[in-house]
Amino acid sequence: MMTTMAALFGGLPLALGTGVGSELRRPLGITIVGGLIVSQVLTLYTTPVVYLFFDRLAKRVARKPLAIPSLSPMHEPEHAQ
């Protein structure tokens, strides 16, 4: 959050600036500020979603019993002849 805010506030003068040549720099500033806002919102949304997905997957895998082959003499494997 701090890095994004620092970059966002650094891009504000480009987006809001007036003066000579501002019509060339303004689109760059708006793109920087908009991109940082969108990427931060997506990151703050997707990080918990991915964490919850992996947490639920780990719980599902932990619940599943492992298939261990039986070693009893009654179930000896058949050999090809």
Describe this structure in words.
- This protein has two helices and no strands.
- By secondary structure, it is mainly alpha-helical.
- It has a domain at 34-59.
- The chain is rod-shaped and about 90 Å long.
Quick tags:
81 residues; 70% helix; rod-shaped
Give the topology, please.
Elements: H1 2-16, H2 22-63
Helix pairs in contact: 1-2
Overview in brief:
The chain has 81 residues and is mainly α. Helix content is 70%, strand content 0%.
| Helix-strand topology string | HH
Mean pLDDT: 85
Share in β-strands: under 5%
Rg value: 29 Å
Biggest β-sheet strands, sense, barrel: none
Number of helices: 2
Relative helix content: over 70%
Number of strands: 0
N-to-C CA distance: 69 Å
Uncertain stretches: none
Structural class: mainly alpha
Shape: rod-shaped
